[in-house]
Write the structure tokens for this entry.
Amino acid sequence: MRFTSERRLDDGVLEREFTLGEIPGVLWTPDSAPAPDSAPAPLILIGHPPLGLDKMYPRLVGRARYYATEFGFAAATIELPGSGVRPRWDAAEQARAELRRVLAAGEPVTGEVVDALILPLVERAVPEWRAALDALLALPGLGGPVGYEGGVISVGVRLAVVEPRIAVAGFFAGSFIPAVMFEEARQVTIPLRVLLQWDDAGNDRQAALDLFDAFGSQEKSLHANLGGHTGVPRFEMEDGARFFARHLRRQGE
Amino acid sequence: MRFTSERRLDDGVLEREFTLGEIPGVLWTPDSAPAPDSAPAPLILIGHPPLGLDKMYPRLVGRARYYATEFGFAAATIELPGSGVRPRWDAAEQARAELRRVLAAGEPVTGEVVDALILPLVERAVPEWRAALDALLALPGLGGPVGYEGGVISVGVRLAVVEPRIAVAGFFAGSFIPAVMFEEARQVTIPLRVLLQWDDAGNDRQAALDLFDAFGSQEKSLHANLGGHTGVPRFEMEDGARFFARHLRRQGE
């Protein structure tokens, strides 16, 4: 992991861009580091849709700053494979083109289309997140308990299954879900919080409810709010932070 | 309205039992009254299932004390017709007996059974809540904005439609819902927060989701949590109080 830029935001949060091999990412840490003898700060991994970090930056930094200033959490994100400045790959481009064609033609989005779109992304992104986690937790002041939040929900589900350092997760049910993920969901046992935009035109509400039902976790909450994909109310960010604090502070102490 | 008892709880909350005609009720008010020139305290009407106030008291007083000490809200409840010390009435007793028979026989709970059980309760309880609201808002220190919370959800839906002084509501989706309430739900336009226990054996999950979908409110949130009827997590009470505060403080200022 190599830091490529560093700046102090006006609320004191330290924002550092980094690269991990070819993968760009951003790390945000609170103004005041934990005392030397106290537990390391919890770390929130912020997932996002494959639209490119540049485009997603305003929403990501808003959450990271809130977490750092109000809760003392560190937060980090990385670019998804095939997005932003990262090289495109043919299979993913073809799958995206096929989805656009199907939607434009008003045809049903079949399981094959969804699998081709999502599963290769999961296969590539999950090991990258794990490598980023290795590097992040080795940094001074980090090393505390870890939460994951955001979309792509299938990436989050796979991470929750295979990565034992992720102790808690907040998912955003806003993307297509391959059938196999409903099976993987049964293996998820960490505390979960799932956000669902009730009127999200690009989202299958019933699939989101079925996925929530499938999760094996003993503690899981679904929060549905009115409105479309980008209309998640601000109070859900605040509630999400309290959810992380309930679980990560307990672990970290 | 006649106060029949008064005591100061150890956190300073004033608990007063009252009767309104034949209807018993309880009013909880914060230790420190609002300053004479400040807005009156918001009032939360706490609804509950028809099990009798005595049986429900521990859960009701827990919420009322939290609202009073943490948020400065007043809270009140009244006994439902046919419950607790109030006289039984034949039609309601017959409807309850028929529900028990149907459940014991493993027969489906038909719309007729649900209508007979719930609609007469709604018809009687809603005017009583409105009369209680008249009396409560005339008391010194009250008169602020009003929220309603709890079950019976059909009572809450009807109240939200007919009672303009109720500015916001938190419902508990944990009882049978007559078909006509799905129509009435479309007329509800106040901000709503609906709690759903995902594994509530006595509850129809799909009916609760359909009712949430039917509400006409521009701001509505559904919070589903794992567990049965009485397993609502404590953090939902805290979140519910913040929900009321967001809407009632704004109104009261």
